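Sample intake sheet
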Amino acid sequence: MHRKQWIFDMDGTLTDSMTVVWQGAPLELLRRYGRTARPGIHDVLLSMGMVEGAEYLIRTYDLPLTLRDYEPAMRQVIRDLYKKVELKPGVREMLARLKAEGVRMCICSNTWAEQCEEVLTRLGVADYFEFFYTAQGAKSKAHPEVFHEVLERLGGSEPADAVVCEDAVYATRTARQCGFYLIDIEDETSVADKPELQRLADQYITDWTQLDWTKL
C-alpha cells in the first residue's frame, strides 16, 4: 500500500449516525418541548443552513428559545443521540490494518471535532486518528483548500497518493476535483446519490469488509 494519508468523514462513513443523529435531532428537540414534527420536516430542513434551520424550528413550533439558547439545547440533544451510535461493519478491523501498515489518519467532519472525538473514544477507535477537523462554514468540505490543508497536516503533499473516505456527494465532488483517491460508502441517507457516488469514486462499497486492498 503506497497511500499513507487517509482522510475520513465520520457520520455515515465510519458510524451509523446520519439517521440516528442528524435526522433524529430535530424530532428529539421538538419532543423535549412537547411539540410534534410536521410531515416533511427533513426535506424542509435539508434546504436550510444551520442558523436558518434553527430560526425555522423556533418560529414554526413556537419554541421557548432564542437563537442563543438554541445551540446549547441542540448540542445536548445531539450529544445524547450519539450515545446510541455504533461503528459500521468492518470499521474496527480496517482501521487496525491501516495503522499496522503505517498509515496516518484523521477525521474531517461537519460535526464538531470534540463531538467526533467523544463518540470515537466511546467506540474505542479515537486513538487511530492524529486529529479531528471541524469542516463547517468557510471551512466546509465544499472548499478544496480544506482537503489540501488536512492533507498537509497529515504530512502529505500529493492528493493522488492520499485517500478520502466519504458518503456525501458534495464532499466527494470536492475531493475528486482535488485529485484524491476516493472511497465512498453507501448510507441510507445518500441512496438517491448512489449513481453519482459510483461514478465519482475509485471504490464504492456497501460496508468496509468489501474494501479492495489490492488497489490501495
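Comment: Residues 5-16+86-215 form a domain with the Rossmann fold fold (CATH 3.40.50.1000). The mean pLDDT is 94.
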